[in-house]
Model the fold of this input.
Amino acid sequence: MSYKKGVVKTTYIAIIIAIIVIAAIGGMAYMYMKPAPPAKESIKVGISLSLSGGFAAPGQRQLWGLTMWVEEVNERGGIYVAEYGKKLKVSLIYYDDRSDSATATRLYERLITEDKVDILLGPYGSGITLATAPIAEKYKVVMLSQMAAADTIPAKGYDYVFTLLAVASRFGLSRVELLDSLSPKPKTFALLTSNELYPLTVARATKTLWEKAGYTSVFYEEYPKGVTDFSAILLRAKAADPEVFYAVCYPADAFVIMRQMKDIKFAPKLIFLDDGPNDPKFVEVFGKEAEGVFTQMSWHWELPFPGVKEFVEKFKARYNELPRHWSAYPYAAGQFIEKAIEKAGSLDSAKLRAAFLELKDVPTIVGPVTFGDWTNPMGEKLKQINLGAINFGLQIQKGEMRVAIPRKYSSVDIIYPWPGWAS
Amino acid sequence: MIPSADTILQLIVQALLLGSIYVLMAVGLNVIYGVVKAINWAHGAFVMLGAYAAYWLYELYGISPYASAVFSAIALAAIGAFTHELLMKPFFGMRYFRAITLVVTYGLAILLINITRYMWTDVLRGVNLGVPPATIGAISISRPFLYGGLVAIALSILFYLMLKRTQIGRAARAVSESRKHAMLVGINPNVMSRFMVISGAAMAGVTGSLISTIFAVTPEMGSVLGIKAITIVILGGLGSYAGALIGGLMIGFAEASGTYFLGARYQPLLYFLTLLIVLSIKPTGIAGEE
Amino acid sequence: MALGEVHLRIENVTKRFGGLVALKDVSFALNKGELLGLIGPNGSGKTTLINVITGIYRPDGGRVLLNGGEITGLKPYKICRMGIGRTYQIPRLFSAMTALDNVVVGAIFGKGRKADLGEMRRKAAELLDFVDFPKLRREELAGKLTLMESKKLELARALATDPEILLADEPLGGLNPVEIDEAVELIRKIRDSGKTVLIIEHVMRAIMKLAERIVVLSHGAKIAEGEPREIANDEKVIEAYLGERIYAPSQ
Ligand SMILES: Nc1ncnc2c1ncn2[C@@H]1O[C@H](COP(=O)(O)OP(=O)(O)OP(=O)(O)O)[C@@H](O)[C@H]1O
Ligand SMILES: [Mg+2]
Done:
């Protein structure tokens, strides 16, 4: 029996060795036989998308926005590249990272080394972007990130990574404008924030900027993950009697906060909830009481930028829903890349990077884009972020989310003070 | 900042109501622990499912969560039966039964939470009954919270009486002391443990229905509440009825007052310290047996 | 069933614990209405035999027959409901329950189970009186009782299941002489109420007076069976007890 076992084992090993040898010879032969790369036929744009897993919903919408741009640019015959003396069509190469950072990292490596893409677009979310940005930097391929708002990424100081979306610390800019544009101007504010990295950055930047602008903080609280009941926190906020109440929170928290504010009859003159009221569900649930509540979005379908109307119409017709920033930003990234390649007249990474930095106020559906360095309110130096990026302050009016801040892009009057709870 | 007397009173009422909800949740968990002698890690996930059941019935058919609590209870009873038969009973009598059950129900919790997340996503959900708060003197209390707290306390007492007074209650107590000896007086311990796991799960379902009217309904609540429930029963004493009561109210108070006076960011620390202090004085929990 | 018929039959029962043979091919019969003594030195397998009969252990060989029907390996609660009650060497009560509730639990789920809780409570109270359990201690938690009270309570609980056969594991163990006399009386009374009784004892003075017939185990094997007088003079039994003095009745 043991003899038999030995024979089986030997045969097994022999087969495996044979497979390895054949594979190695085959691989080598393939490498030698591979023809020289043909003359440039298209501009290869590479991206890893979260088409399945936790980020599948926004990831899919990211692809929709990109697809619309690719189709449009190719209908126009492509992008003129001086180096080749002709227009080249754009081909989008994408893979599904299943919402997983490690997978995305391998995919970017593959996009660069095997697919030999000319330029990269960033993946979905700060987490995956943070993990994959070093790959772009390592191979010196330009990566235009459109779906990451964390300050930590531009704070790394990468040369080849550009951040299109408004980073968290810039949210404070429109919050300052909001308070400045109220009359009578409020004096005090209360700020409640989740203590996770992203909300915390938004909250700290806003607090710093508000205080600098002369508003007094009467309540500041960071709540950890796992808080289900906000009534004690709100009770203290109420006792501080602020005029403005701002919560940087997740939708579920906003829901409870809103409800419990009502329960304890906490009625400041302004309520701003970062996430929650920007979900149509919020208005549905709170009805009249949602009226006048502020919230935010990185983009809005009624913004007066050139091309927005056409984009929205086309998107709605095609995908049967209103586009959100998940689709608008990737589309805008395409618009910017188009201009950058034309300017560089080349697909060489160094030249592209230079063009990215030279271009000023490139018109896109997310507004004029200019890349540059910026020091955030906490004093961190951020490299190559979109200095035109805005986080929009919205107010619920007649059940609709309307752009309220920046005022120059708004077509409505701000309701202030907030009417209070229906009795 | 020194709070006014009214604020203190308001805080106390809030703490009591929050504590009551925790008591019901902990009683459900302890009911299971009592006979099975193992922690059901999926209890929080059960509560979450109860909350989703209440949410969907309200959303789709406009059924009040107070009415649909019966449905939540039945649905969770079914899940409880499944848990008992497939995830607990096969391991009864094994040497590492407690550890096995903990791991298996932990797996179940993750599974349920992820299925929920997959099916209904992280989207904001919750039942807003839109009822105005109740005003008593200077304090203003959420009605859903008030009703929820009262129902929770009533149910806890009812179940306590059931355990103390009825035949099944006596048998359950006998089994919880010793499966072996209970068998020798004619009690089928599997029937009793099935009954108690079903009861505990049904209570989780009711807890979920009540919570759906008070907090937001998210897949996350499954793990958050699960850990809270486990903390409470360990604090109060595993398997002890009085322990669930004391532990639930204590955590309710610690949470409300700690949040008010120290700040929300110290909540996890506060839990940990409360647990540490209590367990270092009495390792079996406040009302736990030696 | 008539008196003297075989009530419980042990047939070639063997039970091993790993390498240790706790019961070796043990066979004997317990007759209806009889009071049988089971004796043997420490570790001879007496308790193990009871555990096999009541279904706590499944034997490695042999059968257990109740009224001619096989009950080997049935679940303990089933065996209890078929009419076999037991008490432990060291009383095993539900210590967090009151004395009365301990008996009620037996009454509810045992052979004579009924749905009516009130009736069960009455029955439990009667049984407590029957075993002479102090009335004032009924609502005391079982964990707080004295040894004698615990033994009485355990007997009452076993009786509450309406057993036809009572297996009593060293009911006299740990009691003082006065208590022993009381307990002996109680066991007689139980037998006289029509139950078949198997009583284990390894101290023999009392059993010699009490039992009608005696089975002796040594190292897991049955070495003798007979009337007390025969047993007392049995060579093998004397040897098994290593020269311990054996008391025969009226000596
Ligand atoms: N569960 C068990 N696992 C292993 N060995 C056991 C087990 N139960 C009993 N034994 C062993 O079997 C033998 C018989 O034990 P048993 O308790 O039946 O003796 P006994 O006659 O009742 O003794 P005593 O007079 O001391 O009560 C002993 O050697 C004991 O150690
Ligand atoms: Mg023994």
In short: Residues 2-33 of chain A form the longest helix (32 residues). The pocket of magnesium ion (ligand 2) is lined by residues C 46-47, 89, 169 (CB under 6 Å). The domain at 170-298+393-409 of chain A is CATH 3.40.50.2300 (Rossmann fold). The radius of gyration of chain A is 26 Å.
